[in-house]
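B., you asked whether I could sanity-check this one before it goes into the benchmark set. Here's the sequence:
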Amino acid sequence: MAKPNQLKQDPVVAARAIAQAEVARRWPELADIEPTVAPRRCYVPDTAELSRLGATGSVPARAHNPAEYTFTFAGQARTPEGYLMPRVARVTVDMQRRVVKVIASK
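And here's what the prediction gave me:
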């Protein structure tokens, strides 16, 4: 059974854990980096704009709860030639603790 403090875990802390696991799996050299976090809001047109575009319906529920967080991991990786190369990875996680987007520098 889950402990009460686990049920009320901070959403940013939970999202950070998901992002760190994803980065550790894909880019082990960034696994120990503490990420910066930025809230990400999705743009959803209002009802007037949707009708002007010919789309019918109401504003999706996602627009009312637009909390997604983008975690940026910045570190360095060693190339096969022995040089240090900057490496930046960004992971976006939504409120349902799903990874929405993952990108990294080359």
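One thing to flag: The longest helix spans residues 11-26. Otherwise nothing jumped out at me.
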